[in-house]
Amino acid sequence: MEQMRGKIKAIFQKYREQIMYLIFGGLTTIINWLVYVLLVAVGQDIEVTNVIAWLVAVLFAYVTNRAFVFQCKATNKKEVFKEFVRFFGSRVATGIVEIVGFPVLYRIGLNLSLIHISEPTRRTPISYAVFCLKKKKEIKKKKTETKKKKKMC
């Protein structure tokens, strides 16, 4: 039993980022759906509902990805703001598809639940790429700084 736990722990450590990304990506999707369903239930207009659900999901995704998935260390307000703008900007294209495309397709009679459910699958690779590219850039920068220090010695 202990050996099995050790193997599971090793696998989790090796793929921690991907596993956490899947978990929080799923939670982001659930948040999106819940906000959407709740607002529709109280009679909110479909366009407004869609925008609010998208914004809440993007904010949730940013906070959770930053804190739990990629464990970003930036604390400087300027760096954090830049990071948020990049993250939010990467989501704008999928947001436009959802915010504009969804109501149009709904009004012409296509199944609204299938359209709304498919949107989170489009944004997943985008946000993963934003954080991963930033992280790789930081790692490369640290390696370069280390090499420079070694040359100076």
Task: Give the secondary structure arrangement, pairings included.
Layout (H helix, E strand, L loop, with lengths): L1 H13 L1 H26 L4 H24 L7 H31 L4 H41 L1
Helix pairs in contact: 2-3, 2-5, 3-4, 4-5
Structure summary:
With 153 residues, the chain is mainly alpha-helical. Helices cover 88% and strands 0% of the residues.
Describe, in plain words, how this protein is organized in 3D.
By secondary structure, the chain is mainly α. The protein contains 5 helices and no strands. The longest helix has 41 residues, at 112-152.
User: Which structural class matches the secondary elements?
Assistant: mainly alpha
The helix tally amounts to 5
Helical content stands at over 70%
Q: How many strands?
A: 0
Distance between the termini: 50 Å
Order of helix and strand elements from N to C terminus: HHHHH
Largest sheet: none
Shape: extended
Strand content: under 5%
Using only C-alpha atoms, the radius of gyration works out to: 20 Å
| Mean pLDDT, all residues | 76
Low-pLDDT stretches are 113-118, 149-153
Keywords:
single chain, 153 residues
